[in-house]
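Weekly sync notes, structure subgroup
Attendees: PM, AL, DS (notes)

Item 1: joint prediction request from the bench team. They want all two components modeled as one assembly rather than separately. Inputs as received:
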Amino acid sequence: MRWSLLLLSLLISLPAFAAGEVNLYSARKEALIKPLLERFTAETGIDVNLITGKADALVKRMQSEGSNSPADVLLTVDAGRLHRAEQADLLQPAGSEVLDRAVPAAYRDPQGLWYGLSLRARTIVYAKDRVDPKTLSSYEDLADPKWKGRICIRSSNNIYNQSLVAALIDELGEQTTETWAKGLVANMARPPKGGDRDQIKAVAIGQCDIAVINTYYLGTMLASTDPRERKAAEAVAVFWPNQQDRGVHMNISGAGIAKYAKHPDNARRLLEFLVSPEAQRWYGEVNFEYPVVQGVAESATLKSWGTFTADTINLGRLGDNNAAAVKLMDRAGWR
Amino acid sequence: MSGLVSAWSNVDGRRHSWRPDGWRVALFAIALLLGIPVLAVLRFVFHPAGEVWHHLAETVLQDYITNSLFLMLGVSLGAGSIGVVSAWLVTACRFPGRRLLQWALLLPLAFPAYIIAYTYTGLLDAAGPVQEWLRVTFDWSFGEYWFPEVRSLGGAVVMFSLVLYPYVYLLARAAFLEQSAHAVDAARILGSGPWRAFFRVSLPAARPGIIAGLSLALMETLADFGTVQYFGVDTFTTGIYRTWFGLNDSAAAAQLSSLLLVFVFALLLLEMSSRRQARYHDGANHGRRPAAYHLRGGKAWLALIACLVPVLFGFLIPGGQLLAWAVQTAPYMVDGDFYALVWNTIALAGGAALLALLVALLLAYGKRLRPGPATALVVRMSGMGYAVPGTVLAVGVMIPFAWLDNTLDGWLRAHFGISSGLLFSGTLAALLFAYVVRFLTASLQAVETGLVKIRPAMDDSARTLGYRPAQILRRIHIPMMRSSLLAALLLVFVDVMKELPATLILRPFNFNTLAVRAYELASDERLMDASSAAVAIVLAGILPVILLSRSMGRNDD
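Output from the run, pasted for the record:
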């Protein structure tokens, strides 16, 4: 009995709601957020308590914790999950002019429930020595029989592919997108496996000629300490599809303030810090993501890939179409 | 205590009547508590099968089932044969290198399946150094030569077999070690050769241990997520995850989970029935072990190679590769944070292992004191969590804990105007509970394997001599089961250290483990950076392996 009392008091004392801190549920992995958080603490004196995990799990956790949830900020690496948190009534408007001014309308929720913090472009890379970029044009074109056995793309389990298809559904409608997905599957060089870097490596060794990837994977490979990775990354070049129409498919990493946040002011300050020029540059320099704030200098690697037109579909639509996208890919045999 | 004393007379299993008493109530209470997470998920099963379920049945369900069955079959053959053959060779035969190998064979246990999968992919994939060397040396280009595809169903079978065979080896070896000389001697006196004696006497007698080990290995296979996801092999776990989160349909995901549990249940029944048929107590074990076969020349080489191959591919090669990566990346990956990770991991795994052992002892004794089909079933069911994918289990733990916290908080607010906040959710208590639910089977199997070997007649004799039950436990059972208890601790310790999805979801703020670190980096395809954490997991896992093996070796030779 004495033991259980001791245990109980220990447990009560653990989740301390002291001032001067902010609790962050982050789907961004520790290595890709902690340095920024440390800088935030150094600047403001506010301690950041961090849990990393998969976005879905973090959302479920917030849901079951309800009004007692310690989470102040939810940070995800795709818009669909933020939209889902919004649908589950887990977020509150940030009410920050700084954020509204800094983040373009396409990359934030109209009510300020969530904001994009960095941009991720999902584009096409091709083998420099085997593919004439003139033969490339759009995502739609990837279903053309001329690419038979030449495309590498990862599994439909991956959220970035789900979002890409969700965006296509929005643009083309479900039926056309399904026909497209079937054509894409028929063109795959191998059953989908591995991550985006794997697809780049497969292009480099000649297993396929083009691949669909998020550009920051290419950036980190170019900066890798492993010469094999650098060599693979140097064998491919970036192509920006759909430049004549809607533009390149974009996703965001973004964040929103939790509905039951115990430190809403600190949460707001954290979000505002994350769109400050300093933080925005960091995304580009360390993880080769595009800044969400206009006018922030891009890193040299990003510049080398050139400028492009980005799709400005409201990212909330990606969340709406996610389930339809997954089912469509199942039907198309996209593993 | 009086209940305990009266219970002791039941040990021979004569009385099977169903009276509620302290032990039975305790057994049921524990089983129910441990069952809560699974029930919290399965309650969705009674939702009517929706449109998503039909979609699954039409498109991908068949793949999930065939792939899962094929994996189980392959791992049974792979892990089963490696485990049994090596266990028998090191216990029944004498050949150079045997002493080293008998613990080295346990080493792959320290490898999480997803780590070995990432490592072999890095080595053998089309873009890896081996194929690159082939291409450069023979001036081939991709597609001009045949090379086995690592990331495939067959590759997954090999990966699982390599890291899971130690379960079979461990329990089979314990069973072979505990076999007395009499049966084997009799077989040999009657003219059986070593092979015949092995197949007719040693193997059947060790069957409960072998099947217990195999069912552990298969349950791990079914619950794996990281490996099959990376290899692009669609199984129940990837399907559940995708249905729950991608299709956002918890009911269909729960229906998939329950289908998975049918597989698990079949495994548990198989294991139970094998135990029932095979209650081998040696009539009069004087502790003498069968004479060993002294192997010489070619036979000794064959035995050595047979035991060396699994160690080589399950440990030395992937371990060497990881170490080579770690040497390059450690300078910037190993810092103060890293040592905190090591400490967190060891403390957490140690605590969970002890807790699981206590619960397992309680359950195993309850079952021994109150035998009967109902208790057997209840005890077996408490181990179901082992095969539930970590992600699903974590959600199952999260929901009831948060409900409890919020209800308590609401009640306190309403009656006393104070708020307790979240007492259990997001604390180590929730995490430890999840580990016990997930890994209880491992310690339960080991404890039961040890306990079943102790003849009930021995308890009776001790009772006649005036020993009280607690004394019997301390003076007789625990010393006799020492190796099994250690096995129970070790299995859970290493399992917890490798555990990932539940840790990821349930851990408190600012609390990381080595597995979390390794996985975060590896899943981002930063394999080289992940290697320091992976090496630390493996190293920490080796220590208990050595400890265990030495204690097991004590009654050897």
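Discussion: Residues 297-333 of chain B form the longest helix (37 residues).
Action: AL to compare against the crosslinking data before next sync.
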